[in-house]
Amino acid sequence: MAPFAGLRIDARQATPIYDQLVTQVKLAVAGGTVRPGDALPSVRRLAVELRVNPNTVARAWRELEAEGLVETRRGQGTFVADSARRAPKAQRTKAATEAVARTVAEARALGLSRDELDGLVEREWKRTEGGRS
Amino acid sequence: MAPFAGLRIDARQATPIYDQLVTQVKLAVAGGTVRPGDALPSVRRLAVELRVNPNTVARAWRELEAEGLVETRRGQGTFVADSARRAPKAQRTKAATEAVARTVAEARALGLSRDELDGLVEREWKRTEGGRS
Amino acid sequence: MAPFAGLRIDARQATPIYDQLVTQVKLAVAGGTVRPGDALPSVRRLAVELRVNPNTVARAWRELEAEGLVETRRGQGTFVADSARRAPKAQRTKAATEAVARTVAEARALGLSRDELDGLVEREWKRTEGGRS
Amino acid sequence: MAPFAGLRIDARQATPIYDQLVTQVKLAVAGGTVRPGDALPSVRRLAVELRVNPNTVARAWRELEAEGLVETRRGQGTFVADSARRAPKAQRTKAATEAVARTVAEARALGLSRDELDGLVEREWKRTEGGRS
DNA sequence: GTGGTCTAGACCACG
DNA sequence: GTGGTCTAGACCACT
Q1: Would you state the pLDDT for residue A45?
Q2: N or C: which end of chain B has fewer CB within 10 A?
């Protein structure tokens, strides 16, 4: 499966689209799903795929480049930088913990039981199986 | 524990503050944590507590009122509307599923195993035990 | 004279407009012409003044913010960051030396004599006298 | 010293490489440093020397030819056109004035005194003495 | 084909 | 009023 196959956005969310993309690429790099040298989808292709303006994708890639996570090669495309490293385990756990905390809080507020939550996690995990790991 | 005791905001987040408040109130109503007739914190008190512009809190309450979830009684304050009902199970599950999906996607991107994710959920669930439920 | 009164761009130049603005603000900060807390011109006002698209100015301010040189206060405007310091003398001299080298090289290529070059510098210096210093 | 011996580029600069070359050749012609009939370096040789794609050099020579400043003689190379004349004094002064203006602006923004600027010009002029003039 | 810059203009969030 | 996001579409630079 191609790297970055799973990039997706949610227009209803308050987080800006370009920011959603930045976050997902960062996560993929931190988690080792993609590696230095891997190509990001081209601005135009991804824009078509996500039905988004090319400028929006370009802005995301630009921000990532400013942070040194990716580099653009003229006329070729945008690539994960050689210097981009998989984040250490502790850091990844910390990030995941925050995400989990948000979701648990929401589940509780919605009055879900522990079993119901586990069921949802189980189902979602299965549903997303098969990506490059 | 007073209803709405846990309202909290994160100024660093991209989501507008008023939006964070709206979401939390909605969740509490949908989940049955608060019930029709319960009072929302007063605009001024909450503004002070969260160190936020009173306009921002007012804006949140206004949006909620526009949606019919709360009602303002002159001189008394803002209250959960009588018509506000706990959301039906299916709707609550749908909301929770979206939250879970986001978190599972993030965990996967970070390269966590299923067991690691379960462990984090377990820990977070235990940690937040004891609130009004 | 107001800070940043002298911001100007040259559309004929190869350097992108937003970049020209970034550079000028950086120089002004490094040189002490402007100080922490000083307001940058508003995006819209400057865009009108320079006959440029507001997006272009916004992009410049955004890049400066990403570098921590300025900070934006919601609804108020963009300001030189408190942390922005005047560059040390050595660094300023280095920057100026590069600029001088470029110009001397060009003057030589154009066949100017030393006296002619001095005359131009003299004239330009006089012409720009009167700024905040 | 061979004509065009000093052609050099700066890959870090925003200005396209081919443009940097065009500008330098134009300057050399305008200033009389090179004369009609003088040969430009061959595309390949210069590409190797500057570690640049030959297309880039070719592009520069092509632009210059389109402007009538140089002409290509099949199998021989590229030469300064017979019609290329040293620019009139006024025009050269104008070009130099712009360069000086940019540098004076930068020096002012950096908080340099008139004396400091003069010192830098003096030093740079001395340092570059000895080229073909 | 790739990314980069810029414009024009809409709509949102905040004070 | 301030800045922020996004779209649509043009043109440029480079491979």
Answers
A1: 93
A2: N
What pLDDT shows up at residue D19? 81
Residues 6 or more apart whose CB falls under 8 angstroms from that of D11 comprise D17
Residue C31 CA to residue D127 CA, distance in Å, equals: 26
Q: Which of D103, D80, D101 is nearest to D27 (CA)?
A: D80
Q: What is the mean pLDDT of residues D5-28?
A: 76
The protein residue nearest E2 (Cα–C1') is A75
E5 C1' – C82 CA distance, angstroms? 31
DSSP assignment letter at A97? H
Does the pLDDT of residue A7 top 50, yes or no?
Answer: yes
Q: Which residues in chain B are closer than 8 Å to A14, comparing Cβ atoms?
A: 14-16, 19
Contact between B110 and A30 under an 8 Å Cβ cutoff? The reply is: yes
The per-residue pLDDT for range B94-133, each reduced to its tens digit, is 989 989 999 999 999 999 999 999 999 999 999 988 754 4
A-chain CB neighbours of B109 within 8 Å are 6, 24, 27-28, 30-31, 33
- On whether the CB atoms of residues C33 and D106 are closer than 8 A, the answer is no
B 33-52: CB within 7 Å of strand E = none
Cβ atoms of B65 and B78 within 8 Å: the answer is yes
3-class state of residue B70 by DSSP: strand
Measure D72 CA to nearest chain C CA, in Å.
23
